[in-house]
Write a structure and sequence with these properties.
Helices cover 46% and strands 5% of the residues. The chain has 155 residues and is mainly alpha-helical. The chain has a domain of 87 residues: Multidrug-efflux Transporter Regulator, Chain: A, Domain 2 (Orthogonal Bundle), CATH 1.10.1660. Strands 1-3-2 form a 3-stranded antiparallel β-sheet. A hairpin with a 5-residue loop joins strand 2 and strand 3. The protein is elongated, with a radius of gyration of 23 Å.
């Protein structure tokens, strides 16, 4: 088992805490073997899998989406360059949507928090009579909804 890494070695090499590694294992994102003393031991290729998980999380994928992506790999193997290219292409629309949402947030942040609270003077212009409430909870306009989605005529 000399070629295998301890949980501490994987944590140090990957930049992920041992607690997070145990969580990833519990969630079936990574696997380990057990030593004779029942300690976790990881194959070196787990480092690439963890890097994949961290990048996918960084771009906003949920653990379920990451699990689904990893499940497309035969025999739970580590993603190759071509796997990464295929999967990252499939995530591009999601990233484009997120960039657009963040751009809207940046551009509209100083004008309206988009919550439909009618607390601010400008809300009477953006959300008269709290019409955005029909669109759902939260800051509807910053989440991408428009006054026209709630049939609001701003004149």
């Amino acid at each position: 088992m000399d070629e295998l890494l301890t949980i501490g070695e994987v944590a140090e090499r990957s930049g992920v805490s041992a607690t997070t590694l145990r969580f990833y294992e519990k969630e079936h994102l990574i696997t380990s073997r057990r030593s004779a003393g029942n300690q976790r031991r990881f194959a070196r290729d787990v480092l690439r899998r963890i890097a994949f998980i961290r990048v996918a999380q960084r771009i906003g994928l949920s653990l379920q989406e990451i699990r689904d992506a990893l499940a497309t790999l035969p025999d739970r193997r580590t993603p190759t360059k071509s796997d990464w290219q295929r999967l990252s292409r499939s995530w591009r629309p999601r990233l484009d949507d997120e960039i657009a949402r963040l751009t809207r947030l940046r551009d509209e942040l100083s004008e309206c928090i988009g919550c439909g609270c009618l607390t601010f003077r400008a809300c009477a212009l953006y959300n008269p009579a709290d019409a955005a409430a029909v669109l759902g909870a939260g800051p509807r306009y910053l989440l991408g909804d428009r006054p026209s989605d709630a049939s609001i005529d701003l004149g």
